[in-house]
Every structure is written in structure tokens, then in C-alpha cells.
Design goal:
By secondary structure, the chain is of the alpha/beta class. The chain has a domain at about 1-110 and about 170-205: P-loop containing nucleotide triphosphate hydrolases (Rossmann fold, 3-Layer(aba) Sandwich), CATH 3.40.50. It is built from ten helices and eight strands. The protein has helices spanning about 15-25, 30-40, 45-55, 60-70, 90-100, 110-120, 135, 160-170, 175-180, 195-205; strands spanning about 1-5, 30, 80-85, 105-110, 120-125, 130-135, 150, 185-190. The strands form two sheets. It has a five-stranded parallel sheet, with helices on both faces. It has a three-stranded antiparallel sheet with strand order 6-5-7. α1 (about 15-25) crosses α10 (about 195-205), α2 crosses α3 (about 45-55) and α4 runs parallel beside α5 (about 90-100). The longest helix has 15 residues, at about 160-170. The protein is globular and about 45 Å long. The mean pLDDT is about 95. The structure holds adenosine-5'-diphosphate (ADP) and zinc ion (ZN).
Amino acid sequence: MNLIFLGPPGVGKGTHAKLLSERFGIPQISTGDMLRANIKQGTQLGLAAKAYTNKGELVPDQVVIDMVRERLRQPDCEKGYILDGFPRTVPQAEALAAFARIDAVVDLEAGEDIILGNLGGRRVCRDCGATYHIRRLDGATTCAACGGELIHRADDQPDTIRHRLEVYHRQTEPLITYYRETGLLINVLAEGDIEHDFALILKVLDLE
Ligand code: ADP
Ligand code: ZN
């Protein structure tokens, strides 16, 4: 089962990709997480990526394409994987088609008000990258998984959020047409709570 999770920032791609990954024991491959790990470790790739991610711009295609190609070669991807945040442009999708066989593309959608609420209230563990929302944190300021401090991502500030949504509409949304034409696209309206939307995803994928 090789899946792509598509959709605007803040729609819940990462949350649902993680749940699916845990349920089926296949890796969640999040290019955002991989880039942030590189930035944190100060690798050359991280240094190159940082200027883009901070501004809410996309990192150049070739950087993420090489990163994902390399990742999919790892043995844990043999039984399947979930791509979360990749591809994000048509050239990335075209490159992916040359080195991966995708079974389905789950396109998560939600109204802009919901997306803005999700992004504005998002908190991330600075140590393990786990994601939370303030409405479910009950005032907690540390990560339930590792105890790390929860922070507001630099690119989750209002101006950058607005810019990321523009970038999504301009550069990523064309992928919906691209994958519809391949017959792989499945639309899911992800406007409920996490449990409800996840059940819906299992259902459309025939995984219940
Ligand atoms: P979200 O889905 O919340 O926007 P991500 O963690 O997926 O956030 O991505 C954060 C940032 O990392 C993006 O704004 C972009 O700068 C960079 N990034 C992640 N994936 C890609 C990609 N496939 N292509 C280009 N840049 C990417
Ligand atoms: Zn943590």
C-alpha cells in the first residue's frame, strides 16, 4: 500500500498519516519532518532548506525529490509507505512517477476557517516533532510522548500561514487535477474531529 496524502497545510495530513502508519506498520514519510530534522541537525541540506521553510516557501524541487528517492530505497518501505507533504508540485509528482508505484492519493479538504483554526492552534514538540492542538491539550505545555517542550512553529505565525496557503493554491492544488486524471484520487472532506475523519479515511481506502 503506497499512499500519498494531499491537501492544504493544516488539514490534518500529518495527523492521519501518523495514525495510518501506526495501524498498518508502514512508515510515514513527511518531507516537512525530514527537512526540520535536517535544519535542527545543521546539515548542509538543512542549511539550504531553512531560508525557504521559514518564509513558507517551497524548498526547490530537486532537493526534496532526491531526499524522497533516497528514503524510499530504505528496506522499511518495502511493505508500503505513506507520503505526507510530498509531492507538492507537478514536477515533484512527475519525478515520483519514475521511481514509485502509487496505489492511491487521498486528497483531504476542509474550509479555510477550519484550516486557519488548525494551524493557529497547532503546537509541536521541539524534541520529537509530535503535533498537538491547543483545544485538545488541556493546558499542557509538554509533549505526552517524550516530555519535550511544546512550541509554536515559526511558520505557523499568521503572516506565514497566509503565505503558505497562497503557495498551496498556486503550486500544489494543480496536483488534484493531475492525480484525478490518473484515476488515483480519493477526496475526503476532513472537517470533523480526528477520530471521525480517520474513520472516513479508512472507509474510503477500504481498510476498515
Ligand atoms: P504543512 O503541511 O503544515 O504546511 P510541512 O511540515 O509539510 O507543513 O512543511 C513545512 C515546510 O517544509 C513547507 O512550508 C516547505 O517549506 C517545506 N516542504 C515540505 N515538503 C515539501 C515539498 N514536498 N516540497 C517543497 N518544500 C517542502
Ligand atoms: Zn515529543
